[in-house]
Amino acid sequence: MTRTAKLTIIPPGRPLSGRAMPPGSKSITNRALLLAGLAKGTSRLTGALKSDDTRYMAEALRAMGVAIDEPDDTTFVVTGSGRLKPPKAPLFLGNAGTATRFLTAAAALVDGTVVVDGDEHMRKRPIGPLVEAMRTLGIDVSAETGCPPVTVKGTGRFQADRIRIDGGLSSQYVSALLMMAAGGDRPVDIELIGEDIGALGYIDLTTAAMKAFGAKVEKTSPVTWRVEPTGYRAADFIVEPDASAATYLWAAEVLTGGAIDLGVPSDAFSQPDARAYDIIAKFPHLPAEIDGSQMQDAVPTLAVLSAFNETPVRFVGIANLRVKECDRIRALSTGLNRIVSGLAREEGDDLIVQSDPALVGQHLPAEIDSFADHRIAMSFALAGLKIDGITILDPDCVAKTFPAYWRTLAALGVTYQDQD
Ligand SMILES: O=C(O)C1=C[C@@H](OP(=O)(O)O)[C@@H](O)[C@H](O)C1
Ligand SMILES: C=C(OP(=O)(O)O)C(=O)O
User: Fold this and answer.
1) Which intervals hold domain Enolpyruvate transferase (predicted)?
2) Which domain holds residue 15?
3) What pLDDT is attached to residue 1?
4) Any ligand 2 atom below 6 A from CB of 324
5) Among protein residues, the one whose CA lies closest to atom 3 of ligand 1
6) Number of domains within the chain
7) What is the ipTM of this complex?
8) Ligand nearest to the CA of 206
């Protein structure tokens, strides 16, 4: 399929209203796929996301002997043998952080060698803290550059009573170890170290998914979890809609003064980004300071929305946005300044957005570099709802987590001019 080179958004000039459903949660789908793959028996995952990130996870599990059927657009039927087999070739996981980190730890449960690799962006995303923590368990694991590719020479077993992990750069390291730990042969305590403990909400998602697949995991202190060596059992599992995807629709609603029915109330989500709803609802009176540490994937949405706010907004607690699909702090400041010079600035790892409600209705031609990052493409599309001339480069990168994004906006009445 040829990729669309750029997409110019035509401001709808009216409130966006109607029904627009976000897809299934990426975070939950990739947890459920792995846990179902580690279980013995057949699990049925419904409401799941089908996108680049979940396809990479499913393909990797297939390469390790898991049977996965896809009877429709939102269902995976996963049959595991209770053991992952060594794959014949390196696992290629694109730029899917969840798949890469979760499978690196799960590879310790494989009796044989697993190479976990990704695209050129993933090869710049750090995985050193996870590799180091696995080494302390006696697992033979190496990542020469501190980023993928990672080689894990597993024996199918590991020895540990306690794992200490710094989740400051990525909470996914912690989630990965928690999911692996239930496959051990004795109880394991997993303890967070370091000052910055990352997005705890994602760890709650992990423990909830583990429990749904039969694991016993208990929080024994604010920074420690005890995981029993239960392994996993097959389960039927419903994936909730994606809260990060929902943020674009919530923001489109307030920006255009419309009424978008997502088919799910904002308080029904268990994912961390759902907390962005209460902030978005305050638009155009967003807080002067927003701490993004516990809802990092919502920061691009909030930052672009802030450009139209009554007063400036400073984003704090977002240092690890520099090691996401791209350096999101840089991508946001670059894109906003491309619209109007001086619209954003970086101060250390903080991002300050100089709001300007008078942007609405202006003709300001700007080509926005997505940096191959779905969230940069999706959030800047919001600016195109109110400013004439916003062009998103590489719009197809939304396929990472929300392949139907452009169609979803179109169904609400947004039109485009695309150029190959
Ligand atoms: O556990 C998860 O599902 C995720 C955790 C977050 O990443 P980090 O833990 O790397 O911050 C988030 O940005 C990512 O999109 C999904
Ligand atoms: C950071 C993200 O993804 P991941 O880390 O799973 O690649 C994201 O989806 O915004």
Assistant:
1) 12-409
2) 6-23+241-419
3) 60
4) yes
5) 27
6) 2
7) 0.99
8) 1
